[in-house]
UniProtKB/TrEMBL annotation:
GO BP field: acetyl-CoA biosynthetic process from acetate; carbon fixation by 3-hydroxypropionate cycle
Domain Acetyl-coenzyme A synthetase N-terminal: 71-123
Top-level taxon of origin: Archaea
Source organism of the structure: Natrarchaeobaculum sulfurireducens
Every AMP-binding enzyme C-terminal domain range: 579-657
SUPFAM superfamilies, sorted: Acetyl-CoA synthetase-like
Protein name: Acetate--CoA ligase
Principal EC category: ligase
UniProt-listed Enzyme Commission number(s): 6.2.1.1
Keyword Nucleotide-binding set for record: yes
Length: 694
């Protein structure tokens, strides 16, 4: 049966104002907006969405989908905020909440107030009572080809033991525990053990350097750390503990550390004072049980550091009730996960996607979540498809950067395996253009699987823009309409909604349960990073600014174009250009630097560094090596620059500001606009020569 997509919010009939596209004017506050209007990739994506190549999910999918109610968008709008009861109903509350939303002190919103619950109880214990004791909770695929299955009962035992051990080490409610582990089962176990005793966790991606770990532990005043001796990468053993030792040396407080022995004989290590072996602790606390601590809905569940517009990472605060309700609901409604499914999100738990959609969402629903430690091309390029095949994965969720790599490698790799178990595919992290979208559906999804393109952020906690696969039609290139109950508005620089097809800033006009409550660094920074730009506090209008630009089409489908701030997204990892610049500037002989992203449809975004050296210093290989080394040690190997360009000077405005946008256009080989605002316009030609353009 064919049905039109449900009409979204009523849009006012504005008279389209003649829009004058200023070509590459490097002047406005957020100049990338103008540039994006001309950006070819963006135009192609937008155009494809606008010309309406829509795809209807197959009837066989819709027949079994969790959410098929065609009027859900309208119902949620009409019932807002009470509609979010449906999300909260997916959880078990120790104490029912009294109020759904308290909005008397914006932008500090409070959800499900008066309610109490425990996240580890919701992700583990309650499933034991519903006959799922022996149901697989986690299927782990290790780098060395190891495989382990944790049933919900196994998970309960391990989480309880570790929770008891952490209490034994002195961890109390509200103490922040840093977790610095690769993709091994101890990582989700540690998160859930913290949640059980009411200690917020702060997971730091294992690829981060010692400095980056130390910055995050210092900012959070975190006195407890769970880490490991090392991990394997392409068969080689890497030492993680030495990074930890370095990080702890630079902290001015003591740290109690639990160390998982991941490498055994491959990396013997000695424990110092205040260090405990994870497996020893496990034995010492064998069989112990810890009652889950009832947490207020608004109590912090975890802290996650992410990159912002300055070099200082931001500590995003997520709460227990709203966050868990939102991730459980979106895992159910968007990813269509069912308890009997085997579900795989091929992200790293060290980032928000892994928190929400490897750990909390799927476990809250009692499903089987696959956890993969390795890389997609080791031992061969069919590794992921082999895992899908062997585990009969039903739902698979990954990033466009991975899909672009699969495309380059060729369809023969997925073709080697039986992928017929797959029912739904998802993507997150970057825009996905129609071509890789279609390739994914055709070669992984056998031309049948719906593909959900989900837009969200560390700060939103859970998905905000996506089609509901049992309800909405898909438009490749567009993430989709706002999720029911969310209010995405694309606005111009003055906060007025743009007309369909025009580019604007992606803002959110009403609060949502999974939203960050504040930044650990302080409420002021929370206000200034997200709320000041588009809110009118006096008029009582509060708007969250995402940092992204987007377009919206006549049907209310949103195409996200990319960031307008100094955040770049490299292989799905969020980095701050300022943080990288800080690491480059630290190198002896570097006078000035500007870091920008270079994007291509094929490779996604790469890190491009412009450097001018001090006069007495030769811009030679030694400086280049030192820059790479310093970036790796300040942030991590994943932040390694792809290209370093030396230039006698950086292009600057008359007021002395480096013109990063111009440098970005140079890096991207784009036609340059008006450079008359430059104090040193001649430098642009020199940089292009250095790059070999002319
Ligand atoms: C979940 C996650 C957030 C930024 C976000 C945007 C980009 C994420 C996207 C997308 C286009 C999508 N982004 N999903 N862009 N389409 N479906 O990735 O969180 O690491 O905080 O990054 O990622 O630019 O602002 P995070």
């Amino acid at each position: 049966s064919s049905r039109p997509p449900a009409p979204l919010r009523q849009r006012s009939n504005r008279i389209a104002s003649p829009s004058i596209v200023r070509r590459n004017a490097y002047s406005a506050n957020y100049p990338r907006l103008e540039r994006d209007m001309d950006n070819r990739n963006g135009w192609e994506r937008t155009n494809s969405a606008l010309t309406g190549t829509t795809h209807r999910p197959p009837g066989s999918f819709v027949d079994q989908a969790n959410v098929t109610n065609e009027s859900i968008h309208r119902e949620f709008d009409a019932e807002w905020p009470a509609c979010w009861d449906r999300a909260a109903a997916l959880l078990e509350w120790d104490q029912p909440y009294e109020t759904i939303l308290e909005d008397d002190n914006p932008p500090f919103y409070r959800w499900f107030t008066g309610g109490e619950l425990n996240a580890s109880y919701n992700c583990i214990d309650r499933h034991l009572e519903t006959g799922r004791k022996t149901h697989a909770a986690i299927r782990w695929e290790g780098k060395q080809g190891e495989r382990e299955t944790y049933t919900y009962q196994d998970l309960a035992v391990e989480v309880n033991e570790l929770a008891a051990a952490l209490q034994g080490l002195g961890v109390g409610a509200d103490d922040i525990v840093t977790i610095y582990l690769p993709m091994i089962p101890e990582l989700p176990i540690a998160m859930l053990a913290c949640a059980r005793i009411g200690a917020p966790h702060s997971v730091v991606f294992a690829g981060f350097s010692a400095d980056a770990l130390a910055t995050r532990m210092a900012a959070a005043d975190s006195e407890f750390l769970i880490t490991c001796d090392g991990y394997y990468r392409r068969g080689d053993a890497f030492n993680q503990k030495s990074k930890v030792d370095n990080a702890c040396l630079s902290l001015d407080h003591d740290v109690r550390t639990v160390v998982v022995d991941r490498l055994g004989e491959d990396l013997p290590h000695v424990l110092g004072d205040d260090e405990w072996d994870y497996h020893d602790l496990q034995q010492r606390y064998a069989g112990e049980r810890v009652d889950p601590v009832s947490r207020d809905a608004e109590d912090m569940l975890f802290l996650m550091y992410t990159s912002g517009t300055t070099g200082e990472p931001k500590g995003v605060v997520h709460t227990t009730g709203g966050y868990l309700a939102h991730v459980a609901w979106t895992t159910h409604a968007v990813l269509d996960v069912k308890p009997e499914d085997t579900y795989w999100c091929a992200a790293d738990i060290g980032w928000i996607t892994g928190h929400s959609y490897i750990v909390y969402g799927p476990l809250a629903l009692g499903t089987t979540t696959v956890m993969y430690e390795g890389s997609p091309d080791y031992p061969d390029r069919d590794r992921l498809w082999e895992i899908v095949d062997r585990n009969a994965v039903d739902v698979f969720y990954t990033a466009p950067t991975a899909i672009r790599a699969f495309m380059k490698w060729g369809e023969e790799y997925p073709g080697r395996h039986d992928l017929s178990s797959l029912r739904l595919l998802g993507t997150v992290g970057e825009p996905i253009s129609p071509r890789p979208w279609a390739w994914y559906r055709d070669h992984v999804g056998d031309g049948e699987c719906p593909v959900v393109d989900t837009w969200w952020q560390t700060e939103t906690g859970a998905v905000m823009l996506s089609t509901l696969p049992g309800v909405d039609e898909m438009k490749p290139g567009a993430a989709g309409p706002p999720l029911p109950g969310t209010d995405v508005r694309i606005v111009d620089a003055n906060g007025r909604e743009v007309d369909p097809g025009e580019t604007g800033y992606l803002t959110l006009a009403s609060p949502w349960p999974g939203m960050a409550r504040t930044l650990y660094d302080g409420d002021d920074r929370f206000r200034s990073e997200y709320w000041n730009r588009f809110s009118d506090a006096e008029a009582g209008e509060w708007r969250y600014f995402s940092g992204d630009t987007a377009t919206i089409d006549e049907d209310g489908y949103v195409t996200v174009l990319g960031r307008v701030d100094d955040v770049i997204n490299v292989a799905g990892r969020r980095l701050s250009t300022m943080e990288i610049e800080g690491a480059v500037t630290d190198v002896d002989g570097v006078a000035e630097t500007a870091v920008v992203g270079r994007s291509s449809e094929c490779d996604g975004t790469e890190i491009y560094v412009y450097v001018s050296t001090e006069r007495s210093v030769d811009a030679d290989g030694a400086v280049r090596d030192a820059i790479v080394e310093n970036v790796e040690s300040a942030i991590g190997p994943f932040a390694r620059p792809s290209e370093i360009v030396f230039t006698p000077e950086l292009p600057k405005t008359r007021s002395g500001k480096i013109m990063r946008r111009l440098l970005e256009d140079v890096a991207n080989g784009e036609e340059l606009g008006d450079t008359s605002a430059l104090r040193n316009p001649e430098i642009v030609g020199e940089i292009q020569t250095e790059r070999g353009d002319h």
